[in-house]
Amino acid sequence: MTTPTRETLEKALKSDAKLQAAATQFANELAGGTYTIADLAEQLGFALTSADTEERVAGTNLLSAVLNALPGDVLNSKQLEFLTTFYTDRLRDHHNVMPAIIVGLNALVHMKQLPAESVPLLLQAFFQYTTCQSQTRGDRTKIFNMFKYLTVHYQPELVKMAGDFLFGLINSIDGERDPRNLDIIFSFMPEFISQYPLLHLAEEMFEIFACYFPIDFNPSKEDPEAITRDALAEKLTHCLVASEQFAEWTVSLAVEKLDSELVVAKLDSIELLHQAALKFSPAALEPYFAQIWQALKAETFPGSDNADVLRCALKALAELLKSAAKVPSISHNYQSNVLGVVLPHLSDVHHRLFHPATAIALMCVSGDAPYAADKILNTFLLKLQTIELSMKTSEERIKFYHIISQVYKLAALRDSLTKLDKAILLPLQDDVIAALRLCERDDFDAKQEDLELQTAALSVLCECVPVLSEAQRALVYKALVQLISHPYIDLDFKLLTVNLGALHPVELQSSFIDICIRNFDIFSEFIKRKIYSNLLPLLPQIAFTQRILDLVMKEVFTPTVTEPGRLLALEALSTLLNQEEQRFIVELQQQSNLLHQLIELARNTPALPLASLELIAAALSRIMQQLPLSEQSAIVSEYLPTLDLQEAAQLYVARGLLGYLHKDIALDDHFERLLDDLTKLSLSSDNEQLRTIAHHLLCSLVNKMDNTKENRSQVKRIIHQLKEAIKSGDQRAVHLLAWLAKGLVVAGFEEAAEIITDLTDLLEHPTLCTAAALAFDVIAAEFPELDLPVVKFLYKQKFFHTIMNKLGSKLSNYCEHHMKAFIYVLKATPHSVIRLNIKQLGPLLFKTLDAQSDGQFLCIALNICNNFVKQQDAYFQAHLGHIIPSCLELSKQKTQPNMQVRIAALQLLYDITKYPTYVLLPHKVDVTLALAAALDDPKRLVRNAAVKARNAWYLVGAPSGD
Amino acid sequence: MPTEIENINPSVYGKIKERLITANEENDSVADPFDKREIFDLIRNINDPEHPLTLEELHVVQEELISISDKQNSVHINFTPTIPHCSMATLIGLSIRVKLLRSLPPRFKVTVEITPGTHASEFAVNKQLADKERVAAALENKHLAEVINQCISAKG
Hints:
The complex is a heterodimer. Chain A is mainly alpha-helical. Among the domains of chain A are: about 240-325, Leucine-rich Repeat Variant, CATH 1.25.10; about 330-470; about 475-555, no CATH class; about 705-825, no CATH class; about 830-960, Leucine-rich Repeat Variant. Chain A is about 70% helix and about 0% strand. By secondary structure, chain B is an alpha+beta fold. Helices cover about 35% and strands about 10% of the residues of chain B. Chain B has 6 helices and 3 strands; from the N terminus they run H-H-E-E-H-E-H-H-H. Chain B has helices at about 25, 35-45, 90-105, 120-130, 130-140, 140-150, and strands spanning about 65-70, 75-80, 110-115. In chain B, helix 3 runs parallel beside helix 4 and helix 3 crosses helix 6 (about 140-150). The interface of A and B includes residues 936, 951 and 958 of A. Chain B: Keywords: Chromosome partition. Chain B: It holds the Pfam family FeS_assembly_P. Chain B: InterPro entries: FSCA_dom_sf, MIP18, MIP18-like. Chain B: Belongs to the MIP18 family. Chain B: This is MIP18 family-like domain-containing protein.
């Protein structure tokens, strides 16, 4: 193939589509080396130099399109130089040609072999002959993208152009209004500004960005690229702090805009100061610190109403102080400025400025901890020395302690706790310890005190453990021993002992742990419980592990231990197993065979109370869960055959072993026996607790069972057996059937449908209807303590629909027991499912509210309504005329004796006020009048709800009522 | 609202803890009479017109300065302005009145007065607050109603 003829070219120039197709074809041919770009340009000469503007535009367009379609490495530097000269000459052409030239230039600068020296020529011509801002939006985007590419790839050449390039760039950007272009500019400029010398043009450069600050922009909803205001603002902020030369102007800009009334402007200004603190060196910012502090002080001291502004301002201040901390002289200057204002207000807790002052003081500590913490602690120390330490609870002291503990904490975070002045710390800590030891005094009445001072003192001590002197530690240990052996006081100091244990294990052991353990037997139950709860957190520290473990084991397993000592020990064991991780528990089991010991304990101790058995079962299942599958399976086959489930202790053991057994362990060998035994127990026992355990176990068992023919026939057999019992009117059988159904429904077995049909039929039974309604509650409700690992996807929805269909006709006639059963099901149905079916369910719910039924059902129905109203549901909005009178009726004590219902109705009325005003106004007068009755309710909680609802209704449509 | 704040650094006090719910209160068959604390709970969260603080935090209202007789259907409240020439005293009193008007059953006769000896024009303010017609007229005033609604639409 040869160079395209003039004819081909003329054809190509006729339309845009043809032009693009031809350009792609030519580019392919050029890349293939069929002819060179010079040949093409020569052939195209007639169009490029035509006197007709239209034709020139089309010709240039074609050439640019070809360049655009070419791969970057086809043209050599000579050809590129030639093309650059051509395009720079064309820049003088008619403005109609410009778009085509821009496309071409953009393609050229992206070529790999473009000679670097052509770039300055190209740019100079560009700046000289055109102005960027007179181009269309799309062309400007191309220009900015070109600048972006050039600044990254031709840095040395551009630096040589010095002011010319900067000036050209500033002129091009100046006046840009399109957010999409601004987004490009703001993205690449920070990098550029930080790397190029700005010469005398720094202020001009700053000004082109400053004029956009703070950004005010509302993106249109249809915009697919969706540039948000916040994204633009963030990028702009980076531009404004890109060079240290900007420091002076940035600060005055931020301070000026901080004065604005607009929250957005305030937040942007504060963020600008924050970024300035991050980017600029302390030396650059120091001259303007006074100005910044004045501005921030106005926002933080006493502080504006807007929590966001306050938070950000404090953050910016902290950042400023933190970055200054690198240079001590500057930091001390800042700190003395800030602390000078704040410290005087720290000594009176009753002053309005106390809280703002503490917030700022804490920021100072987080900036330069050693310097500020000393000053602040000293202020507190002086003040504390003037307040007498007395028995009376001192609000001031408590507040001081809380702040002191935060100061300590911040100092520790900055690793400067040990750098603080001991002359201040020691007396301060003495004061705190003295406050803690108040409770050792004889006249201390622990029953009356609320111990807040002691709690506050403990919180300080927790933080200052590393800087306590030895004498102080001795006093602390003494106080701890007193506290733990005190007959009434129950203070939580776990954190303190953990911190002490980590730093001084030997001391803690001899002065605290040993004393607790040595005298353990003589302590009362209350003290023993305290000791357990305070020692267990120390367990992970290796120094104490064995000692504490020994204590617990001894108390659990020594046969001579009496109740309630064992119960306490079992509680401790339970906590221990729950707090430790898997590795620890597995090791413990391997070393001491804890499982076996516990089972033996349960089986061999006569008359162990049910509460203890419960704890043993919990401990067993916790251990089982942590063991590997093979071991779980071995344990089950070892112990299960020997258990007699009709006996309480052994039933509990079975629950411990099987309750949380992994679902992959097949129980097929024992399945039949377990089903029979548990069914027998449930039908014959009178002990509700034991029956509950049997039910839970059965439910979990059928849920986990393998889907085999044998297993299912076993279950069918039991169901059949239960049906027989039901025929003779046995309520327990109905209950048990419900539990079986629950396990089956959750796992999605077919047998569930059969049971549900039976239960539905029972709703019409003369004596068993109530039990049948309750059965639906059992099936639908969630039991967190029950392990149902096999869960069919969306089973709740499926269950709901099954029930809907089964009860459908009865529900439309509002039969009482059917309604009850259905309300139970609704309680557990996910909100989204109810919403999908609200058209059918709505009338039912309203009917329930009108019917004078049981309080429990009304509460459930009101709660469901409340979920809808909270989301401002449209269906409920359309039926407010029905709901509001029902609720008003339910809120009256005369008609509704159950206070929970009255409260729920009032809460619903309150939530209704969130609907738009125009919907509510027609009801306003009726509601406010009718609610007056509830204000005089005999129950205070109802009155409180009524006050809340009535006040909210008064504000509906009132001036500034929101 | 005036642009200049009269008392820039008032004393601020702690809030009392939320009332604990007793077993009796949860029992349907026991009646709970109105008491001081309940009235105090109604008005303690009213906002001060000048500061973002509640009347309780400024000690403008205090539980001890409330007296109530459930049987005789009367409530008497004294409130203490932060400074003796506080121009907001009437507004605060009005806010307390309106809040109680909306929150107490109509059987109560409510009296709101300035604590004796704590305000320069105590007598005049008390007279205004006791005048039912004036209170009603004040609520007709759109601007005044707006300020009052802002004060009593407490967050809690």
